Amino acid sequence: MSFYPICLDLEAKPCVVVGGGRVAERKALGLLSCSAQVSVISPALTEELQLQHAEGNIQWIDREYRQGDLAQAFLVIAATNDEETQKQVYEEAAGNNLLLNVADVPQRCNFILPATVRRGDLAISVSTAGKSPALARKLRMELEKRFGPEYGILVDIMGALRPEILTSGLSQQENEQLFKQLLHDDMEEWIKTKNLDSIEKHLCAVLKDRIGDDWLPGVRAVFF
After folding, report:
1. Secondary structure of 200-222 in the HEC alphabet?
2. Which end of the chain has less Cβ packing within 10 Å, N or C?
3. In what order do the strands lie in the sheet with 58-61?
4. Measuring CA to CA, how many Å separate 8 from each of 5, 34, 35, 210?
5. How many other β-carbons are positioned within 10 Å of the β-carbon of residue 70?
6. Residue 108, CB half-sphere, CA atoms under 13 Å: how many?
7. What's the confidence (pLDDT) of residue 212?
8. Which residue pairs from 141-148 have beta carbons closer than 8 angstroms and sit at least 24 positions apart in sequence?
9. What pTM was estimated for this model as a whole?
10. Going by C-beta distance under 8 Å and a sequence separation of 6 or more, which residues neighbour residue 151?
């Protein structure tokens, strides 16, 4: 089976996790990191999930899953080893055309979760279409070594510059050229060494004659 890669906006979306163990904890925390509205259905929770509930970050439904629990859900993750519960969750989700992932049971999923490296707003994901999660994890660890925190800062810099460039009145071709020129080969190293002078000199050389320097405070705010 081939899966279509996609990034979902889960902010304030109701998402349900069935199960309260370590796998459920990992899935719930992943949803919370994307600002989802998370409900966990389980008679028991890990210590971390108990803490998240105590802090008001998740809703805890303190019982086993029941038919109808997914009525308001946008996305569902079944993180339980109980096959009967998996089957019931699958049937309800399928009947309501919900997004469903059943942990480690790809035949009951209509989406799978890739192994992902996050550096701020940068996400680099690896998927083997469920054929080898171990290989996906191995590649993720290699990517973690290759792409450090500086890439998250680079994304923030480009994010601060993008609206300034897009509203400057330049043509699409000129915009594309500027975006390419901004990505100097040494940018990552300058960020790692906090060489703000080199970063500003490069950005000024590329942008000042095109869009002025109103962008400078936004870039400096990334560092301070």
Report:
1. HHHHHHHHHHHHCCCCHHHHHHH
2. C
3. 58-61, 37-41, 14-18, 75-78, 99-102
4. 10, 9, 11, 35
5. 25
6. 21
7. 77
8. 143/117, 144/117, 147/117, 147/119, 147/122, 148/119, 148/188, 148/192
9. 0.84
10. 119, 120, 122, 188
Question: How close are the terminal C-alpha atoms of the chain, in Å?
Answer: 47
Return the amino acid letter for 49: L
| b/e per residue 164-183 (b: at least 16 CB within 10 A) | bbeebeeeeeeeeebeeebe
pLDDT value for 220: 87
Four-CA torsion 59, 63, 66, 69, nearest 10 degrees: -10
Residue-wise pLDDT tens digits, 47-60: 999 999 999 999 99
Tokens 């490069």 locate to 202
Widest CA span of the chain, in angstroms? 66
Helices (H), the chain: 22-32, 47-54, 83-95, 133-146, 150-166, 172-182, 187-192, 196-211, 216-223
For residues 38 and 43, give the distance between their C-alpha atoms in angstroms, rounded to a whole number: 16
Specify the pairing of strand 122-126 against strand 75-78: unpaired
Instruction: Please tell me the distance from the alpha carbon of residue 160 to that of residue 139, in angstroms, as a whole number.
Output: 30
Q: Confirm if 49 and 26 have CB atoms less than 8 A apart.
A: no
Average pLDDT for the chain: 94
The 3-state DSSP class for residue 140 equals: helix
